[in-house]
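Dear support,

We are seeing what looks like truncated structure output for some complexes. This example has two components. We would appreciate it if you could run it in full and send us the complete token output so we can diff it against ours.
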Amino acid sequence: MRVLMFGWEFPPHIAGGLGTACYGMTRGLARNGVDVTFVMPHASGDEDKRFVNVVDASDVEAVYGDIYGGADDIMDKISFIHIDSNMVPYISPEEYRSYHDEFVKSGKKVWETKDLWSQRYTFSGKYGANLMEEVARYAVVAAQVARNLEGQFDVIHAHDWLTYFAGIAAKRVSGKPLVVHMHATEYDRSGENINTQTYAIERAGMHAADKVIAVSNLTRKIIIEKYGVPADKVVTVHNAVRFAEKQDEAPERGVEDKIVTFLGRITYQKGPDYFVEAAAKVLKRVPNVRFVMAGSGDMMNHVIRRVARLGIADRFHFTGFLRGDDVHKMFRLSDVYIMPSVSEPFGISPLEAMRSNVPVIISKQSGVAEVLDYAVKVDYWDVDAMADAIYGLITYPALSHMFAKKGLEEVTGLKWNNAAAKIKKIYQEVIDNQRR
Amino acid sequence: MKTVCLYFQVHQPWRLKTYRFFNMGKDHNYLDDLTNRSIMQKVARQCYLPMNALLLKLIRDNKGKFRCTFSLTGTVVEQFRAYAPEVLESFRALAETGCVEFLAETYSHSLASLASKEDFVEQVKLHTAMIKREFGIKPTAFRNTELIYSDDIGAMVAELGFKAMLAEGAKHVLGWKSPDFVYTNAIDQKLRLLLRNYKLSDDIAFRFSNRGWSEYPLTADKYASWLAQENGEIVNLFMDYETFGEHQKAGTGILDFMKALPKAILRYDDIEFETVTRAAEKHQPVSVLHCPHVMSWADEERDITAWLGNELQNEAFSKLYALKDKIKSLKNSDFDYVWNFMQTSDHFYYMATKWLSDGDVHSYFNPYGSSYEAFINYMNVLSDFEIELGKALAAKQSRKKAKATVA
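Here is the complete output from our reference environment:
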């Protein structure tokens, strides 16, 4: 079986959940005997390529193992195609717009997010003037790719709304069935104030698809209720997690106090406010605990002010945006990991924490809550319950040991191989349906 | 006889290095040594050394008729000793002329006067001892950090035995009154107040090199004629010493201006130079100055919101002074050293979020990208310091206990 996949850059380039999931899934599919042609957007060069013909696929193929190490046999089953584009996961039309305007004004190519310890992305002016135009342009190129690869794939798989038009275009050109993968909905990103254009593309993608994969039942429910997709067309496949083979040594601890960590973008969706309130409650009872908020985002300054006003700034620390090794270091230093997301389609970070032997508290409004037994689950708004759980985990060693030990076992069982097998079954189903 | 009172504030903070959460518990060097050294040596080269040499020459040339006043913070003197001892030598040479007065202030250029009397008194005593040690002089007049003043602060200063104190000639406090007279504190009338003439002071400190200013270029003769026209008994020109050669670079002609100024002023028979204490003694106070609310010389508002104006600053401030008792009972000079440089008002200034009217001045002095970064960094350092303080105290107590059992 051969799949043409419209995915996203792999780690370590983009540390977000989307790239991580694509990576694990692709490996899992390869192990299940599926050939994957992986197409991803990639900004490079400066020459005008707006109307370029895609180079022959063999020219741009790259074997992943060569670049990222860890070469093994399954990599034979994956080939890569880069399409020049500015698109990055999670970008909103508004952000894209402002970067483009900035580019036109100043010729600035590297843009940084406006928060502390800014993240960098490269922007190139040769692409579409706004995100919607870019999405459409990407689709045109994708159609060309599908034409070039005619007869070399049996099914198309598109991740996240930015590639849905590409998936639809490939389907029209090739006549092959389309599977779209919902990693997050517009409702997760924006609450009730959705961007209607984004919503429209998500909806169009799902309606044009032969099957829709949701990362959790939570997401599946939103898809059925808010996008009007027939329930029998939507299948839940929970994400899994892939860990590096070697476990690095635990870093030396600087402070003796217990450490409770929040790690993620500091945005409304992630519920940082509730973490702060819970921290203040815990600190009223126990002095020997510190809270760390790792990450950056548009709510960061607001959160810092709140921490100052609550008078807990000597026990509540900010690290700014962490990458690579620092993320693992932070997990290894933690005694409790907390993810109080208001809305989280899946949420892979608690799994990484559990892998580092850290007990986790997660909100009931996260998809990952559906697959975990050994995690404390609370409503995101219930700061009393959250404070209670933190207190329990740092005060009663028996409890935290149990969660850490059982949690590690549980998370080790969440394998991409199994998730990929489910996806393969879905591929088979849509292929068979089409033949019938 | 009209008196011109020229006073220079000399200060550099100890700047903190980028101190992350991961450093906590492991790294107890909080200072950015490279930045501190390079700034000190740059300012010494551009301002302190050439200006001290110039003032020494002016004092000698005018045979006692040119006088001025300084205050040096404890942190700047520490940095002289570490990075530019020749500057300290040149200040000693100025002190020996007898025409230069050194004021008392808070050791760390701190906001202790806003924390508590106890903290304030300790800071002042520390500073007085330092001046005595370095220059062999016991200060008789006082200037508080950033000219922070209120009736109560004045009363504390009087209680410490000072005869005169500097304050801002703030319009919202003076009303129709002129800053060009001597006033007294409202609670203790023995304390005389010299008020800064902010217009004439800022003509030099801020406007001197401004080409858009209608009076540009400012010459010594023109400036002297303004002083002669001032109605009043005393003109108080208080400014940062770094104005000369640092804020206003030598290329603007500021040093030449200063070189020509004494002669231009002394050409008028009815104007003299005086140091702060002697000027305050010479003139009879005309009135009591009521100042129930705290004021300062900073920003358009002349209040303390540049240091304690938002929740970040208030939090850092209260968390810092909460450590006071522990510091006191530990009595360890290494910890006292950190305790002192953490009190410096500049750290709080970096956390200011009022960027509207005085954003230029604020950002000029700010090494951080934002007030939030400044806050996070400061709190990380403070948290580590608190942990170390706790450990040291526990160790001290267990030693004491061990001693008691042996005995």
